[in-house]
Design goal:
This protein is 30% helix and 13% strand. By secondary structure, the chain is an alpha+beta fold. It has one domain. The strands form three sheets. It has a three-stranded antiparallel sheet with strand order 1-2-3, covered by helices on one side. Helix 1 crosses helix 8 and helix 5 packs antiparallel against helix 8. The longest helix is centred in the first third of the chain and has 19 residues. The chain is globular. 40% of the residues are buried.
């Protein structure tokens, strides 16, 4: 049974994303884009028309939603608006997603480069900091970005997972990966690992669609061993889970609070 605080947060987040999923008007698109301003207050100042204005003065065109484009094209060429094409089902049961249901996999490179930097130019590494993961039961350092409070959120996640029963907590360590300057295998765009804003948990409890497809004739047969308690904790702190994707990656969590309707606590200065 989830603690009352997490159950309450889970219900409120689920209601938020359900509202986004049901809305289809231009006004709802505006509401989704305003979620970016609320989700990243350290780096985004405001929006003006179709532009996002960052605190460093950079203006980003949010583009149009490529509703007529195929899944594969949008995956490689998503606009900022496209990132909201599929509502993320926070708090939903952990079940097999529908065909090509990949909420959060549409990422706009220009947007994330503007916030976190381009790893190929060495711009991400300067903001990486160490977080002790599960200090009571594992205690190893992992490297993640401090931007947007990602490191602070992961410390909170770590503390809550550290308090879980052993049979649940063991899925969260050892860590399989954090920062890595690389792209997504099937998209050609940077992974959130390339921004220091993602981590992969214990490989022994993980399933990944590309690895599974290489071993079997049946393609994209969703499998999951990641405990719901761990998924709930990550989602409560602004991280989406790769197990909610048709192209599943059940070890993977990335910081995407805009898809969860979360305005984070202020980052300590």
């Amino acid at each position: 049974m989830l603690p009352l605080k997490l159950r309450s947060a889970r219900n409120s987040i689920a209601a938020f994303v359900a509202a986004l999923a049901c809305a289809a008007s231009p006004a709802s698109a505006a509401d989704s884009l305003d979620a970016l301003v609320l989700a990243y207050p350290d780096t985004i100042q405001t929006r003006s028309g179709n532009d996002l204005i960052l605190r460093n003065g950079v203006r980003l065109d949010m583009g149009a939603s490529g509703s007529a484009m195929s899944f594969d094209v949008v995956l490689s060429h998503a606009s900022i608006r496209d990132m909201f094409r599929i509502a993320y089902p926070a708090g939903a049961p952990l079940t097999a997603p529908a065909w090509n249901f990949d909420p959060g996999r549409f990422r706009n490179k220009v947007f994330f480069d503007a916030m976190y930097g381009d790893c190929r130019k060495g711009e991400v590494m300067r903001d990486l900091v160490s977080v002790v993961w599960l200090p009571k039961h594992w205690g190893h350092n992992i490297e993640v970005t401090r931007i947007n409070g990602v490191a602070d959120r992961l410390r909170e996640v770590s503390d809550q997972i550290d308090a879980l029963p052993d049979q649940v907590r063991r899925a969260a360590w050892p860590i399989a990966g954090t920062y890595a300057c690389r792209g997504v295998a099937d998209a050609g765009q940077p992974s959130m690992h390339a921004y220091g804003a993602a981590l992969d948990l214990n490989l022994a409890f993980s399933s990944y669609w590309l690895w599974d497809n290489a071993r079997t004739v049946r393609k994209n047969v969703w499998r999951n061993q990641m405990p719901a308690e761990i998924v709930d904790i990550f989602e409560h702190h602004g991280f989406i889970w790769g197990g909610r994707w048709y192209h599943y990656d059940t070890m993977h969590f990335e910081y995407r609070p805009e898809l969860l309707g979360l305005a984070p606590a202020p980052t300590p200065r």
